[in-house]
């Protein structure tokens, strides 16, 4: 089936207060313009994703430009462009909060796709083509950090290797390298490209399964997890960025949004603690209420254990309820709207036929968390429109269940149209309903002090050095100087 992909660009200005600086990377979302998909395919995609859950630089926040319109039937994919190496090369990588490591396809990769249905140009990282690339040796302490996120091992060349195996049987393997990541930087109201920092990332030499398919192929995956080899952990430990990131995803009217390495400041934000010592962003969901009436679901259903708990995951398309909570939730929704809609079951999923606005018919859902924080869901946050029949819209339950498991996963369906703050330093997650087309205030606190940024958002496509030979030359010269300083004073690489 031929699917055409459309890219929408929304440009937001960033104004930096007090002469501060912020680092910018473009984040894009691609989605097909024609054919939709079934809920079963979305569930299958999410099951694959759930298998993945496994120098002198300016203070500031990294600001990713978010593109695309939220619609789960379009099977959108969030990704950004990162620049690696000397001279810098640009790679398209999927944003993934369920894994930790940044990895990209490397030269001579076995099974890595060479073309993409996303209409993007794929590339391969070649360590021998970067003057600053260095392999991570088995004796390097950062090789031990890799064991937190993958199956690490040592090759005959004494290189620190990794293997990621995903839930659908696909996987990737390769070795870790250290090199420079380059950033677009805002100085006052001017965009520059003279910032970089050394990071460790994966160089993929083999891919299997769905990762080899060209329809949704990208250059790699950008892990936003909590472990030591995540880029956010590396940059914050160097004092380059704060140990917090935030996003605000638009759910309508052209889509787009904001993703920053920094803390979005909003008066209505409420916070709940992260569950300690978990590999993912686990929170304590305590109860669910419809129009203020708490459902009869035992709190033990949501307690965190080896196969239970509630995870906030911006990479999951739908939302999932623990099996014991799913039926009481769906039954309560159906009963509340029984006089106004016609229920029907489509391919095993509960749906409703409605000729009226769902906001006037369906109840408000409240998810109540530890610490007194409540996430309020509109009908659009737990239902998705599938099609129409005879002038009536068919709305289906966006919450699904994972048979035999007690996991509750809050994906994009729930997280859209909200500021979500992942405060790793404070070990908490916060949220607030928000119009994500508007600018946001961002506070960045690093080891070098605190700077306030205002109107953080997105930049135009012409900010990429790939499109500007002068910027490439300037970046290469600055990287050469920084390389000399780092190699003379630091043992990082």
UniProtKB/TrEMBL annotation:
Residues 78-432 form the Peptidase A1 domain. GO terms for molecular function: aspartic-type endopeptidase activity. CDD domains: pepsin_A_like_plant (cd05476). It is found in: Membrane. GO terms for biological process: proteolysis. Residues 1-17 form the signal peptide. Keywords: Aspartyl protease, Glycoprotein, Hydrolase, Membrane, Protease, Signal, Transmembrane, Transmembrane helix. It comes from the Eukaryota. Its main location: membrane. Gene3D superfamilies: Acid Proteases. It holds the Pfam family TAXi_C. Belongs to the peptidase A1 family. This is Peptidase A1 domain-containing protein. It comes from Anisodus tanguticus.
């Amino acid at each position: 089936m031929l699917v055409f992909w459309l890219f929408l660009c929304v440009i937001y200005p960033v104004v930096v207060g007090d002469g501060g600086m912020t680092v910018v990377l473009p984040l894009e979302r691609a989605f097909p313009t024609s054919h939709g998909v079934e809920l079963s395919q979305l569930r299958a995609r999410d099951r694959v994703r759930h298998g993945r859950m496994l120098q002198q630089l300016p203070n500031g926040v990294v600001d990713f430009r978010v593109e695309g319109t939220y619609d789960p039937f379009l099977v959108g994919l969030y990704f950004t462009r990162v620049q690696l190496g000397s001279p810098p090369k640009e790679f398209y990588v999927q944003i993934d909060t369920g894994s930790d490591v940044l990895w990209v396809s490397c030269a001579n990769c076995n099974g890595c796709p060479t073309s993409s249905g996303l209409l993007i140009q794929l590339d391969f990282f070649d360590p021998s083509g970067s003057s600053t690339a260095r392999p991570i040796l088995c004796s390097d302490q950062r090789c031990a950090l890799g064991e937190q996120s993958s199956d690490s091992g040592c090759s005959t060349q004494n290189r620190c290797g990794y293997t990621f195996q995903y839930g659908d049987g696909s996987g990737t393997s390769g070795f870790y390298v250290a090199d420079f990541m380059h950033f677009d930087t805002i100085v006052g109201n001017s965009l520059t490209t003279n910032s970089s920092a050394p990071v460790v990332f994966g160089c993929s030499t083999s891919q299997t399964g769905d990762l080899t398919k060209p329809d949704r192929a990208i250059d790699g995956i950008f892990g936003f997890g909590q472990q030591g080899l995540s880029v956010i952990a590396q940059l914050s430990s160097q004092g380059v960025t704060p140990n917090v990131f935030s996003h605000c995803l638009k759910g309508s009217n052209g889509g787009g949004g904001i993703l920053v390495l920094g803390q979005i400041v909003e008066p209505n934000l409420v916070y709940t603690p992260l569950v300690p010592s978990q590999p993912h962003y686990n929170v304590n969901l305590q109860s669910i209420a419809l129009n203020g009436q708490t459902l009869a679901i035992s709190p033990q259903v949501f307690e965190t254990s080896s196969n239970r708990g509630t995870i906030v995951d911006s990479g999951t398309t739908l939302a999932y309820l623990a099996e014991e909570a799913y039926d009481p939730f769906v039954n309560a929704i159906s009963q509340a709207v029984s006089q106004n809609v016609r229920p029907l079951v489509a391919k095993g999923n509960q749906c409703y036929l409605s000729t009226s606005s769902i906001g006037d018919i369906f109840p408000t859902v409240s998810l109540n968390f530890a610490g007194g924080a409540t996430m309020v869901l509109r009908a659009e946050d737990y239902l998705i429109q599938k099609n129409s029949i005879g002038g009536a819209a068919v709305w289906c339950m966006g919450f699904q269940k994972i048979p035999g498991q007690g996991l509750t996963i809050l994906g994009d369906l729930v997280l859209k149209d909200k500021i979500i703050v992942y405060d790793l330093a404070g070990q908490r997650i916060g949220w607030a309903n928000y119009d994500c087309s508007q600018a946001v205030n961002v506070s960045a606190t690093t080891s070098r002090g605190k700077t306030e940024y205002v109107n953080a958002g997105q930049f135009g496509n012409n900010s990429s050095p790939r499109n500007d030979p002068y910027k490439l030359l300037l970046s290469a010269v600055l990287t050469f100087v920084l390389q000399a300083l780092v190699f003379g004073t630091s043992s990082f690489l």
